[in-house]
Amino acid sequence: MIIVGGSSSRDLAKELASILGCQYIQAASTKFPDGENYTRIDCESLNDDVVIVQNTYPDSNMIEMFLLQDAVRRMGAKTITLVIPYFGYARQDRVFKPGEPESAKVMCRHLDMACDRVITIDIHKETVLDHFTCPHIDLKAAAVIADHFKSKGIDLVLSPDIGAAGRAKDVGDRMGLPHDHLEKTRLSGVDVKIAPAKMDCKGKKILIVDDMISTGGTIIAAASALREAGATSVSVACTHGVFVNNAIERLTGSALDTVLCCNTLENEVSHISVAGIIADAIRKG
After folding, report:
1. Which pLDDT does position 82 carry in this prediction?
2. Which of 14, 73, 158, 162 is the most buried (most CB within 10 A)?
3. Angle, to 10 degrees, between the axis of helix 165-175 and the axis of helix 142-149?
4. C-alpha span between 171 and 237 (Å, rounded)
5. DSSP 8-state symbol, 255
6. Catalytic residues
7. First to last CA, the chain
């Protein structure tokens, strides 16, 4: 087996190859003066099963993935497995207005043209993967998040809303801790109360878990409200740290004690690795 790392997932791809004890090749990725992508795999052939590790976000990384697929196929890959840590366009899975494309489906169909298996991590909606004709699996990061925080003295695991309550339950159960979701209660035309729906947070160390953080606004407001309600510490961990508009700086400068994410998107706080669970899935075949 050969692991080919795309430009968006270098460290994760290297770690995955180390765990599996197989050859690692870093694809060369640059841009032409006009902005178009150039990708090359510097070896003679790939007469083996190949795993490409590459995000499909932002758009340039999606194009790089298409190019990598074509390159490894031309070089004789026996099978092609796509490991897509963060699947771009997965949230665009429905048509809301006439004239809109079903973007997630479009991306799946194009990726499906040159792959034998697809592995994702905490994709926004698993049903998106049904657009692939090949075997596919979505892995859950709850286990590695729970393992990271088991020794941190956490008392309560929360989700930002009821829609993510299942994730808080999964992490909480793995840590042997109670779980709840945050609930917004409008007190007046301008005042909103944010608090756990059922549990008391006073005197407790709290961990908020979510699938992704983009701007961080909801988490910052929740951390402030929890502190005001008596929480002794508030940490947040997500699978995908998208972090747009200086979100990391605003999060680390807020009432949060710890801000962490998995290394599906590599940045300065992506210290929770999903390489182990990906390796396990690849071994199982």
Report:
1. 98
2. 158
3. 50
4. 11
5. T
6. 184
7. 12
